[in-house]
């Protein structure tokens, strides 16, 4: 459905994306996760045929984004990062305007507008001026304009940014409801968002995909990299020195009241740590292995890249 093949993008001398490749299947939601400046928006603008890559190639349903950009745009709904809307228009007239700009047939315009108004929960505000709407509703209008010609591909750049928690919840629900047979790419810098919404997550950092997999595989990938948390009642410095000397410990450091211990894979040295602490007469309060969250993995991958 979407095939991205080795694209790079230079803005003048600046390399913004550096050899990105991936595919998105029909009905799949792919999340782009990465810090600001990672290259998420740039990749999205290339997929939506808003600008060409410097090298490489993207096809959407078989159409090349450079050679067949009109065909790509017909099939792609795009919610850009800052959700530009004609804010002095009423919701319904704006959507009618977008429909005709996107070449929806005259006699289908009313039905298309009614349909996206219903799909995006805009019934109550259809006659209201956009600038008077809440951010949450404006974001719904942004989604509605992306959906007006019922495109099979949706590209949503930070769809929940700037919304309050209730609005975030509602927009996420809406995106889930919209997925169905559509292929969706959405970007976010919020981890729970992508792990909840997406079938697969591409972690992007400094213009490169550093990992791409299902949220559960990404979590499993590094979960045998054990992190152990230790809490002692007193003599934390002694405990820290002692732990550092144990075979299999890669690193140990203080984190608030705990000692965080990283151990090599395939070794569970919790019994050794427990025994040594007790033998040294240090009161052992807690010792447990920590599950790595997607957030930890993200930090690890991104940090590795920066080394
Ligand atoms: P993200 O969406 O992940 O925040 P962007 O794709 O917006 O990242 O930006 C990637 C990099 O390209 C950043 O370093 C950014 O400063 C740079 N960049 C983005 N747009 C432009 C532009 N129009 N001109 C020059 N540099 C740009």
General description of the model:
By secondary structure, the protein is an alpha/beta fold. The chain is 37% helix and 28% strand. The chain contains eleven helices and 14 strands. The strands form three sheets. The protein has a six-stranded mixed sheet, sandwiched between helices. It has a four-stranded antiparallel sheet with strand order 2-1-4-5, with helices on one face. A hairpin with a 2-residue loop joins strand 4 and strand 5. The longest helix is centred in the middle third of the chain and has 15 residues, at 165-179. Bound molecules: adenosine-5'-diphosphate.
Précis, in short:
The chain is of the alpha/beta class. The protein has helices spanning 40-47, 69-75, 91-101, 109-119, 135-147, 165-179, 191-197, 215-223, 236-244, 270-279, 294-306; strands at residues 2-11, 14-24, 29-33, 55-60, 63-64, 76-79, 153-156, 183-188, 200-205, 208-213, 227-232, 249-255, 258-263, 284-290. It is 37% helix and 28% strand.
Search tags:
307 residues, alpha/beta, six-stranded mixed β-sheet, four-stranded antiparallel β-sheet, 11 helices, 37% helix, binds adenosine-5'-diphosphate
């Amino acid at each position: 459905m979407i095939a991205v093949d080795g694209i790079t993008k230079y803005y003048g001398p600046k390399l913004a994306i550096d050899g990105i490749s991936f595919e998105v299947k029909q009905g799949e939601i792919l999340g782009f996760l990465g810090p600001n400046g990672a290259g998420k928006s740039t990749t999205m603008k290339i997929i939506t045929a808003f600008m060409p890559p410097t090298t490489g190639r993207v096809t959407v349903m078989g159409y090349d984004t450079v050679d067949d950009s009109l065909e790509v745009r017909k099939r792609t709904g795009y919610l850009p990062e800052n959700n530009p809307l004609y804010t002095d228009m009423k919701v319904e007239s704006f959507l009618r305007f977008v429909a005709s700009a996107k070449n929806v047939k005259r006699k289908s315009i009313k039905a298309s507008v009614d349909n996206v108004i219903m799909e995006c929960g805009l019934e109550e505000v259809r006659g209201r001026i956009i600038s008077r709407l809440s951010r949450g509703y404006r974001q719904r209008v942004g989604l509605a304009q992306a959906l007006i010609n019922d495109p099979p591909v949706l590209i949503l750049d930070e769809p929940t940014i700037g919304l309050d928690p209730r609005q975030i919840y509602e927009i996420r629900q809406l995106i889930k409801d919209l997925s169905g047979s559509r292929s969706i790419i959405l970007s976010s810098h919020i981890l729970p968002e992508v792990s909840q919404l997406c079938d697969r997550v591409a972690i992007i950092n400094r213009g490169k995909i550093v990992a791409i997999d299902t949220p559960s595989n990404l979590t499993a990938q590094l979960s045998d990299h054990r992190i152990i948390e230790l809490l002692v009642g007193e003599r934390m410095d002694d405990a820290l020195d002692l732990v550092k000397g144990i075979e299999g410990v890669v690193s140990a450091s203080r984190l608030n009241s705990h000692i965080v211990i990283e151990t090599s894979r395939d070794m569970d040295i919790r019994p050794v740590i427990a025994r040594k602490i007790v033998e040294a007469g240090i009161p052992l309060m807690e010792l447990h292995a920590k599950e790595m969250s997607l957030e930890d993995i993200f930090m690890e991958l991104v940090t590795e890249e920066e080394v």
